[in-house]
Amino acid sequence: MAQTLFDKIWNTHIVKNIEGGPAVLYIDKHFIHEVTSPQAFTGLNKRGIKVFRPQQTIATADHNVPTLNQHLPIKEELGRLQVEALIKNCAEHRVELYGLGHPFQGIVHVIGPELGITQPGNTIVCGDSHTSTHGAFGAIAFGIGTSEVEMVLSTQCLMQTKPKLMRINIEGELKNGVVSKDIVLYILSKITASGATGYAVEFAGSAIRSLSMEARMTICNMSIEMGARCGMIAPDETTFSYVKGRKFAPTGAAWDKKLAYWKTLFTDATATFDKEITLDAADITPMITYGTNPGMGIGVNENIPTVAQVHDNDRSGLEKSLAYMGLQQGHPIKGQKIDYVFIGSCTNSRIEDLRMVASFVKGKHKADNVEVWIVPGSKQVEKQAIEEGIDKVFEAAGFQLRQPGCSACLGMNEDKIPAGKYCISTSNRNFEGRQGAGARTLLASPLSAAAAAVTGFVADVREFMNN
Amino acid sequence: MKEGFKNITSRFVPLQNENVDTDQIIPARFLKATTKDGFGKNLFRDWRYENDNEATPKIDFVLNQPQYKGDILVAGKNFGCGSSREHAAWSIVDYGFKVVVSSFFADIFKNNALNNGLLPITVSEDFVQKIFAQTNEATLSVDLEAQTITIDATGEKESFEINAYKKTCMINGYDDIDYLINSIGEIENFEKQSV
Ligand code: SF4
């Protein structure tokens, strides 16, 4: 029978199906971090059991680590206690930890792929909703709660109900100045922040296939913003050559065997989906959000919608959102003054993102009214940026290059946007208070964020590009 | 093992917002605990208090309005979207709710709720609006065995879905973890076969 990419992976990971209930799904790779794991280890300790397959769990400290002076002890007490608990739990349960000071430390969804741990055909989970990122490799990857972290630590399995399947095709060529972040914000603006709830989404089409691995990760990363259980892209030559040679990628005969299997991971031509949507890449322009959920986005040259124009799902929330954001219905977003620019998070903090920003700002300087934070996704990204001289470009532009972590994406450490201030952010969520109590977040691509950094307001990056 | 779910008749707290995300339910700065206790006092923290100060409650927020109380939280569409933080479910349970009703729940939140003995009930948008139209004295009755929820004043009733396995777990207070740990032999066999 014709199968989808999702089916092929799902079916080979089912330990058993419970009658009238969920399936017991085997998990290949499990990532943990300091915020959602302590209570899970407490659960294991209470039961007097150890981690069942410690070599399949990888830990890092990212959510509340400082991004300045990481060599010093963490000042904030509760955050420090969580990081210390992670160190202790990993040592006791023989779990590999890439903590602060380790050359592999970084945001959990950045380090998995860059170390070659994330591979096609895997089932991957983490106590973090943006685990969907790893689906870019043709994996089933999704976020879980702490009780589920405890299940995976104790049995390497989860109880899961099979989601419905949706395919979103993006066909055609992207216009100049439009990047993968714009694609995903565009999809969100079309289907809303709950448009894919209950579905596993496969992204397909010629525009998706033309993207690099890092660009694909940005799209799968934000599939959770549509409510999707996971997002995925069929692996191809781009995927294989990205994985090859990475630290934990298979080598020699093992590589050949895996590669032969990975090449079978695609949706069969006659397989069907519960829902299918096709969008034209040529319709996409640089996107920006104006509201307080990621579905509230528009092209940068469009006006903020009025209650009459907005999608049903957002109608009741529009006025509340705009009041919070200090913006007005029917007004342009372009030209809105900005106070902060945050380039970072598991959505857009990889080396390609930093290169994209650097090549745009080279020879330019930030506007006086903005503060610009660049937070690389990992120690390896940071190192590479320095090797390529990108740090010098940022320094000359007046941008601050900080140390790796989640940072202002969720403001758990001291990197917070003050109340009432506007921040263009390359992260994934513009919820009320996400970047700090009262902070006003506008989500955009790294290119658009760079344009805002240079001009001091929301700008159409295409008007400032050198070609 | 947790306490099993008992059928309830209770007043309800109407939260008439859509897309209530987990950052609103429990803001990130309260995720620094290493235990599961005490999250209730920070539930909806930034909607509840002015300037993060318990001395200045926002009087227009439902949790600060004494006429609304009960074991049931009724919310607009797409409740619990956003982050996977189970702290959201913990804070709702710790505050004292036993049931959350909405026309639509985010996936991860729904799982987290069920794993903590909090019953998420999905009803039609129409039914949610009917509940919102009730007075603050009105009560709802939830019968998990029959899978129904009733507006007692009018007798209007809707059935809701829950899979048979989860229902048994909820009623008896069983944990998925116990089930999985008891399946370890089968899991080991699976590992051997798939190498
Ligand atoms: S960068 Fe932001 S979205 Fe990504 S894992 Fe960290 S907190 Fe979550």
Give a short summary of the structure.
Chain A has 467 residues and is an alpha/beta fold. Chain A contains 15 helices and 19 strands.
Q: How would you describe this structure in keywords?
A:
heterodimer; A: 5-stranded parallel β-sheet; 5-stranded parallel β-sheet; 19 strands; globular; B: alpha/beta; 8 helices; 7 strands; 30% helix; 17% strand
Termini separation of chain A: 50 Å
Number of helices of chain A: 15
Strand content of chain A: 15-25%
Outline the biggest β-sheet of chain B: 7 strands, mixed
Q: Residue share in helices of chain A? A: 25-40%
Largest interface: A-B, 67 and 54 residues
Give the terminus-to-terminus CA distance of chain B: 34 Å
Question: How much helical structure, as a percent, in the residues of chain B?
Answer: 25-40%
Secondary-structure-based class of chain B equals alpha/beta
Oligomer: heterodimer
SSE arrangement of chain B, N to C: EHHEHEHEHEEEHHH
Radius of gyration of chain A: 21 Å
- Per DSSP, what share of the residues of chain B sits in E-state strands of 2 or more residues? 15-25%
Q: Can you give the mean pLDDT of chain A?
A: 96
Strand elements of chain B, count:
7
Structural class of chain A: alpha/beta
**SS summary, helix count of chain B:** 8
The strand line-up of the biggest sheet of chain A is 5-4-3-6-7
